[in-house]
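Q: What residues go here?
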């Protein structure tokens, strides 16, 4: 009897563990996007599935100057808000320079993480989600990328460099389109060469020293210089009083999008600051209105309520 009771207890614990591990719409807590490929990095997607059939999906890229991730505010918090509004979300912990890299500057002597690693990560994420859209119960034609601060820069790369082949280097050859159906850069880093450039993010993505941070590389990743007419629709937002990333970044991007005739909306708030994600406690009552604006915009571009 005692052994039977122990076996029942063990089975119960295992079942409970499985329920916790698959608590977001039946999917694992974290998906290692590079498992089974030639890339040895461990990069995870955390799914927050809406449970709705054919729902839109958003890959959420937290900010953090390309050195770390603000997962709590600009990752999981945003994903839960999207999920609550019928949109499946996937939080991407893309490769960054790391806190160690920020403190020690070790990338003077070793490669570490740097471009194009993070572009590989977001392209791979789009590939996996679109390829397995039936499994996730999402619409393969309504997959977007939302990014905050440096993550906003990454969302812009996803929407601009979608036909740049960075995956074959690690043995991945996608059979689906890597073009997102929409992008949402929120108070984004845009330029790496303009006087408004965010220096820490520039160092985070490019590496250390003059050999890494060259005029050519700064220009090649200054997104206002690479806007293209066939980009997906863009939802752009920032605040004039942003103390971290100068608001001119978004002004430059808005001008470039307008010049190329890209379908986009630019919402500029006077107050609100930086780094607030979807949390009303961390910004102004004015700026938190971006959430409703985004939901309305998304519904409009797909001609339905999101």
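A:
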């Amino acid at each position: 009897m005692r052994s039977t009771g122990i076996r029942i207890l063990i089975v119960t614990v295992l079942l409970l563990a499985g329920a916790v591990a698959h608590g977001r719409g039946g999917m694992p807590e974290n998906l290692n996007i590079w498992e089974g490929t030639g890339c040895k990095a461990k990069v995870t997607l955390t799914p927050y599935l809406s449970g709705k059939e054919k729902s839109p999906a958003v890959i959420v890229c937290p900010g953090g100057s390309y050195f770390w991730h603000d997962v709590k505010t600009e990752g999981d918090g945003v994903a839960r808000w999207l999920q609550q509004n019928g949109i499946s979300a996937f939080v991407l912990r893309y490769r960054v320079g790391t806190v160690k890299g920020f403190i020690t500057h070790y990338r003077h002597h070793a490669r570490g993480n740097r471009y194009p690693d993070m572009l590989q990560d977001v392209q791979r994420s789009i590939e996996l989600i679109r390829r397995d859209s039936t499994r996730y119960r999402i619409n393969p034609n309504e997959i977007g990328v939302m990014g905050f601060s440096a993550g906003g820069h990454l969302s812009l790369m996803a929407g601009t460099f979608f036909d740049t082949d960075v995956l074959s280097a690690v043995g991945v050859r996608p059979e689906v389109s890597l073009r997102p159906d929409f992008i949402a850069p929120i108070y984004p880093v845009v330029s790496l060469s303009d006087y408004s450039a965010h220096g820490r993010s520039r160092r985070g993505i490019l590496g250390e020293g003059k050999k890494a941070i060259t005029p050519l590389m700064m220009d090649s990743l200054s997104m206002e210089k690479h806007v293209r007419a066939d980009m997906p629709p863009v939802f752009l937002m920032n605040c004039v009083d942003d103390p971290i990333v100068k608001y001119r970044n978004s002004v430059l991007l808005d001008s470039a999008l307008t010049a190329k005739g890209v379908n986009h909306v630019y919402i500029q708030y006077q107050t609100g600051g930086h780094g607030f994600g979807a949390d009303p406690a961390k910004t102004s009552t004015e700026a938190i209105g971006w959430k409703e604006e985004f939901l309305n915009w998304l519904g409009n571009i797909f001609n339905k309520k999101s």
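A: Context that may help when evaluating the design: The chain has a mean pLDDT of 92. The two ends are 54 Å apart (CA to CA).
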